[in-house]
Amino acid sequence: MSAGASLKRRLGATPGDQRPLRVTSPVPVDVWEQVLASAPNALPSQTPTWLRCVCTVTGYEDVSRLYETVDGRRLVLPLVRRPRLGSLLAADFGLPVGWGPGGLVCEGGELRPEDVRMVIADLAQRHVLSTLVRPDPAAAATWEAVVPTSVLRERRMTQTVFLDGGFDEVWRKRFRSDTRNRVRRAERAGVVVECDDTGRLVPVFHQLYGESVDRWARRDGLPLPLARRLAARREPHRKVQTVAAMLGSRCRTYVAYHEGRPVSAIVVLLGTRTAMYWRGAMLEKLAGPVYANYLLHKTAIADAIEAGCTAYNMGDSARVSSLELFKSRFGAVSQDYACYRMERVPITPLVERARGGVRRILALRSRE
After folding, report:
1. Average pLDDT over residues 75-90
2. Cβ-contact 247, 51 below 8 angstroms
3. 347, 196 in Cβ contact below 8 A?
């Protein structure tokens, strides 16, 4: 029995489950926008514009799926696929690494367990090599309660600052006292933050990102040429440029300057009610002593509140890490969630073993 058939058998049919009346792929843009209009808590990474960014930069094709249920509801699942491989070799992503969460966008905004069960059953019966779904972390409990234990899981943790009550409330009750002090120290040190939503500051971000890649390589013991090649593949210059051009005012680049020099930058995406901190880079030796990153995020959070957002998603972090601690200083709440991978053949364990071997070889070479 194939893995897909086994999964379908495990899901089974239970009373009250919905079956899709119709499945359409790719999702018509106008229908997707209609679903989004009734789901204001959708993430910026769950929009058709975002999927176009992914396809433009990566060369993937849009294989998003629209589910229409018998009770008249519509659900959208963002998915992309590398073209020209054929369905039997195809790997679908919702969404690829570096592009944020995908998951289901539901008409009316309410995700039900039967919605997840219906979609997992649909994905399991398709003749593709693998499918990866990375849901909105806010819906983690609904997904985890329904997805069978036989489905591979990649455990993650994200952090979100909730913005209800306005900036004064967030500043006084969610920012830690040492965070407020660091923001003030940044201002006294003369740190200045500039915000742009036209793409003008994207080259400044890339300049700082290149410096960050070199710093990460030295920290991890990777040869600089290799680290730079990997970064160029993972984060090509056209990536942020394309997002800034296609999202317009919904993509904001913040740059912190000290003594006239850019020392740190972040890229923030705006949804209807959720802002997402998407990318960051800095000159650590210059930005750290003047607490530039604290002033950057304080400014972005204040702007998100002014734009009507009720949450500021700061992205994934490793547990008990300096990044987790930094985000918690702004009052970010941790949320565990999982990515789900359905495979017709067990390729993930093989890939993980191969990656582990490469990492061990690089570690040995770095000690020579």
Report:
1. 85
2. no
3. no
